[in-house]
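Supplementary material to the annual report.
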Amino acid sequence: MSEAKPTIDLPHLANLARLNFDSDSSESARADLEKIIAMIDAMQAVNTEGVAPLSHPLEGAQRLRQDLVTETEQRDNFQSTAPATSEGYYLVPRVVD
Amino acid sequence: MPGIATLRAMSSALKNRVISSTELTQEHLATIAEDKTNSFITVAKDSALEQAKRAEQMREQGSSHPLTGVPLAHKDIFCTKGITTTCGSRMLENFVAPYDAHVVALLNQAGMVTLGKTNMDEFAMGSSNESSHFGPVSNPWNMDKVPGGSSGGSAAAVAAGLVACATGTDTGGSIRQPAALCGITGLKPTYGRISRYGMIAFASSLDQAGPMTCDAEDAALMLSAMAGFDSKDSTSAQRQDAWLADFAEHGIPDLERPLKIGLPQEYYADLSNGSIIEAVQKTLAQQGHELVDVSLPHTQAAIPVYYVIAGAEASTNLSRYDGVRFGHRCENPQSLEDLYKRSRSEGFGDEVKRRILTGTYTLSVGYFDAYYIKAQQIRRLISEDFNNVFANVDVLLTPTSPTPAFSQGQLSDDPIAMYQQDLYTVPTSLAGLPALSMPCGFVDGLPVGAQLIAPAFREDVLLGLAAQYQKHSDWHLQRPNGFRVSKEWAA
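Predicted assembly:
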């Protein structure tokens, strides 16, 4: 993987990331991503055989708590920042015809 | 213009009734109004004056918290109820959070006065503050230079004397690098020391808040007020470190013994301004500390590993911006898909899109093991490098960043070159360790920082050593245009 130039399927990635690129910005985004991936590929040279992945920097474990209700209902408060709501629901374009 | 003074100077002036909190706040607001650095995105004049009044009442009623009535600024990544929180992005241009971040709530409880929200790289992604939707920030030492990033507004505001203390966040160096480039003291605490609740997420396994101040003593005072367990943050550390309160109450004590200070050779290999950090070594040796060469062999892999992990976590965290619940929403969406895509494409800037695409690539089917898992494996090797050296030394000394402040526009078209700015700060972030940057000299009139790195939860060692260094140097007291930081408030 480290030798080959990465193949970037930008339309596919953009779709996964829910982003639009026009033809100009698409080309520069692809070129930048190629450079970034090439830079990242330098790490492939490191021998990691038998090394366990580290996800929490201090090896912390998920803390558990009692299964009790701790939050109160604040729909109006939280929806005060929403672009469009109606009767307590978030409004989006019609999904089903 | 008020004199540039430490937090402690303001605290004792308030305590001794040399000045009232309202007067102090008004003086700060007047100085900020004249600011030319673009350090602030939002100035919260009305609420600041209300908080100042409340602080006066708290002091009258006997509040003895040293920070009561002292003004500060928050990086615009911390949610502040009633004050816009933009995260430097068009996406959140009009976002007013319905709650306070834990850090904000703690500092409010202490009676601090929030002057406003400081400028930053968009979603904290950058090392120059040039990716902010609200324009770049100038370095007060040279207005054509960048202040560093992503906490560039906080660093510039402290350096310019607009405020004695600002909050920052550090994911890969975003407190330490701007602190170094602006000539102030910046502390990234241990991962988990300060709650991430209400701090807009970039890379959740790396993000950590911390203070940006004039000196180590002020940093200790702020850390004491910001730190603590928070049940709302699933990675908040449950610690009982009595020294936190002791430092705040009595100041940083003298070190109990000389330290063994490690000099990681990988951090000194390509150094252009080596004589400055050598002078720091000499000063520390004169205080009786022993300096020894050490090696952190996986240092070179840290930048690639960081950009995989931070990109992956960012692409995941930023999926919440969908134009539905909060944030920017495009005009006349034709479908749900169109709503998502146009809202996100209009709301995010180029660097944020770059990071999202990087994360999307490394997490996608067929690449996950080769990139994300591989990066996490090397992350463990980097962490073990630190564990190995800390078996033999108390603390590490390194440069904070490869260069002093660079020119605006110099690196903005070259993301790879920009990413190298984080070379000396990223490994510590990956290992979750505390690190502090302190001013240690100048190159061509621009400040340079030295970084101290300690084992997990040993910020006391960082602060103790930095405080000792700052007793034997005055770099941290120097300010642009010949101004100096005063340790006493001049009425």
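Residues 1-46 of chain A form one domain.
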